[in-house]
Design goal:
Elements lengths: L3 E2 L10 E5 L8 E5 L3 H23 L7 H29 L8 H27 L7 H16 L1
Parallel strand pairs: 1-2
Antiparallel strand pairs: 2-3
Helix pairs in contact: 1-2, 2-3, 3-4
């Protein structure tokens, strides 16, 4: 039986689940088996990374008035924005007070996960801001360098 879930809580679900996260901003319908929100976020990040890379290969050297590339860029930026909203839902959950009996190792794990989710938000907003700009754009180059440094520290 399919269950339609519109909430944004990170949860484990048993059985077959057709998840529509309209309230979170994800437009696609996905059939999942016991996949928590954090895992869905990592899967979406991988898909969006591949789409950004493909757009860069196909369109980065085309003029700004190329209609197909502009349409793809607008769609991709919209999907990146929806992704940011989805990750924000996980961040909100992670910032809620932890159980009083949580041990130090679990607290460090939660903190590391929160930092990674915030990093993903920053990467997605960087991609939105810099998609379609020249690779030599100084703002985008500085942001990319800063994000690479953060990535290496995680």
């Amino acid at each position: 039986m399919d269950i339609y879930h519109r909430g944004c809580d990170s949860m484990r679900l048993a059985g077959r689940l057709t998840m529509i996260i309209g309230a979170c901003g994800v437009a696609a319908t996905t059939t999942l088996l016991a996949v928590p929100l954090s895992e869905l976020i990592l899967q979406e990040d991988a898909k969006l990374t591949a789409r950004v890379d493909a757009w860069q290969k196909q369109c980065s050297d085309k003029p700004t008035y190329d209609e197909n590339c502009m349409r793809q860029r607008y769609e991709l930026c919209g999907d990146l924005g929806k992704f940011v909203a989805l990750v924000n839902d996980d961040v909100v959950m992670l910032r809620k007070p932890a159980a009083p009996n949580i041990d130090a190792a679990d607290k460090r794990t939660l903190d590391a996960h929160l930092r990674h989710m915030e990093y993903l938000i920053d990467v997605a907003t960087h991609r939105m801001r810099c998609l379609g700009r020249s690779p030599s754009d100084p703002t985008c180059k500085a942001e990319a360098a800063s994000l690479e440094k953060r990535k290496s520290q995680q």
